């Protein structure tokens, strides 16, 4: 099982709020109740369900959809 995670886009430096979002889960079934997580929370979930955590790289500005 893999858990794909990315950093939240609207979290600044030094902010105490959870910094990550779970984007997808493959290879198993897991129910997620929250929308934002701390890194240690994701790592604990992965350990308990024997999953690998994949931290996705941020999207470059030129690849972002412009409004």
Task: Summarize this structure as a short list of keywords or feature phrases.
single chain; 67 residues; 1 helix
Radius of gyration: 13 Å
Helix and strand element order: EEHE
Low-pLDDT stretches are none
Count every helix, treating DSSP H or I runs of 4 or more residues as helices.
1
What is this structure, in a nutshell?
The protein has 1 helix and 3 strands, in the order ββαβ. It has one helix at 39-48; strands spanning 2-7, 20-26, 52-55.
Describe the structure.
By secondary structure, this protein is an alpha+beta fold. The chain has one helix and three strands; from the N terminus they run ββαβ.
Secondary-structure blueprint of this entry?
Layout: E1 2-7, E2 20-26, H1 39-48, E3 52-55
Parallel strand pairs: 1-3
Antiparallel strand pairs: 1-2
